[in-house]
Design a protein that fits this description.
alpha/beta; 5 strands; 213 residues; 10 helices; single chain
């Protein structure tokens, strides 16, 4: 069942999607792919992972775009080398897509985030999952997972994350990030709990794969 089977998991911050994906990879006996996308993309672009970690799931902001113009200098001032490489969103997505396709070609895997549902849309054997939850549930999980002491701060984090992921997915795919039509299964992990949610997803994957997905 696991040979060349790809599970993509898109998730809201604090929904537990990464944890569900990790457990699924263990159950299915396939690779769990998350940080590896960052590592390989950074290596190809010859950029520091800490710099790239801030860029992989958001679009470049106006100051980065302006910096790209200013660093080029002017006829009067001459060229001024940039202190950091300016990588366009399209280039970053192109390299990230190449990394994800190469992984999917060589092994079965659970791939977390990074528009995997779109990048691998033509893959012969794929199940696309979206994990979401109520904001209050997610905020409490963020407080616990990231040691955030204030509920309002956790709410700000998830709202910002949702906004950035939505903008990025729309820019690189032309699709609405949370549109159920992008996925084979969408579920509320807050109502189920992580373990029951993982079991439900596993049963769905097993059935969908049996039916020839």
């Amino acid at each position: 069942m696991s040979e060349n089977l790809i599970i993509t998991i898109s998730r809201q911050l604090g929904s537990g999607g990464s944890e569900i994906g990790y457990r699924l990879a263990q159950i299915l006996g396939i690779r769990y792919i998350d940080r590896e996308i960052l590592t390989q993309t950074s290596r190809i672009l010859e950029e520091d992972e800490h710099v790239m970690a801030d860029r992989l799931e958001r679009v470049s902001d106006i100051w980065e775009k302006l910096a790209g113009c200013f660093y080029a200098g002017s006829p009067e001032s001459g060229y001024v080398p940039p202190p950091l490489k300016i990588i366009p969103d399209t280039k970053l997505f192109e390299v990230k897509s190449m990394v994800i396709r190469e992984i999917a070609k060589n092994c079965g895997a659970v791939i977390i985030g990074h528009a995997g549902f779109h990048i691998l849309r033509d893959h012969a054997r794929i199940v696309n999952i979206f994990i979401y939850a109520d904001r209050a549930v997610r905020a409490r999980r963020v407080m616990e997972k990231y040691s955030v002491s204030q509920f309002d701060d956790a709410m700000d984090m998830i709202c910002h994350s949702d906004q950035e992921r939505r903008k990025l997915i729309n820019k690189v795919t032309g699709k609405e990030w949370s549109d159920a039509l992008n996925f084979d299964l969408s579920l509320d992990s807050g109502k189920l709990g992580l373990e029951p949610a993982c079991e439900l997803v596993f049963r769905f994957i097993k059935e969908a794969d049996t039916l020839g997905r």
